[in-house]
């Protein structure tokens, strides 16, 4: 299955970049999408065959432009990895100290960066997915099962689960699979900004059964496998990658 076009949102850093490296080893062409052109350019320069395609995935017009560019250059999209997103609390504040304004901002921002980005890009590319053999993958979170403190981030990730199920049902007759990967605590990403207190990190690691934090590569290899021929009969599933910190479901 070498030589595929693999579109990866949020491909400039962390899990997205590690995923690009996995596919590049197969001779596939990773197309990295994200808001920061400089970050994407550096990432693409370090991944064999990678292409940087900057854009704002919260803007419908920009997503339509991205889809046209992909269509003109590559035609078919073999794999779509929706990795863009993050901690909405790191976005600029609402400029209003009232509790309701803060709540409205937190929920709006989290759904915009974590849910809307994935939905808009997927809807823009669904007719270009390879049929059969196309793969659509979403990045959720352990928070979708246990909450995130404020609720907004967790809800924005959990929203991807029923969307993926509906999409799997719609695309299944075309031979396209749709799955979700829900990581636990992952080191070496930008999610926590400048880092977290040592005691908080120790607590998260202690929750795992293997006694370590996850790495971007742990998640990337799972995504890579779900996009392989070996996983052709797996669809509408949520695969947890968390060292056993959350079990079942």
Automatic annotation (TrEMBL):
Pfam families in the record, alphabetically? Answer: adh_short_C2
For this protein, the record's Gene3D superfamilies field holds: NAD(P)-binding Rossmann-like Domain (3.40.50.720)
Q: Which GO terms describe its molecular function?
A: oxidoreductase activity
Q: Which domain of life is it from?
A: Bacteria
Q: Does the UniProt entry include the keyword Repeat?
A: no
* Top class in the EC scheme: oxidoreductase
Domain (Ketoreductase) ranges:
4-189
- Would I find Flavoprotein among this entry's keywords? no
What's the EC number here?
1.-.-.-
What keywords does the record list, in alphabetical order?
Answer: Oxidoreductase
Protein family membership: Belongs to the short-chain dehydrogenases/reductases (SDR) family.
Q: Known PANTHER family for this protein?
A: 3-OXOACYL-[ACYL-CARRIER-PROTEIN] REDUCTASE, CHLOROPLASTIC (PTHR42760:SF40), SHORT-CHAIN DEHYDROGENASES/REDUCTASES FAMILY MEMBER (PTHR42760)
In Swiss-Prot or TrEMBL terms, this protein is called SDR family oxidoreductase
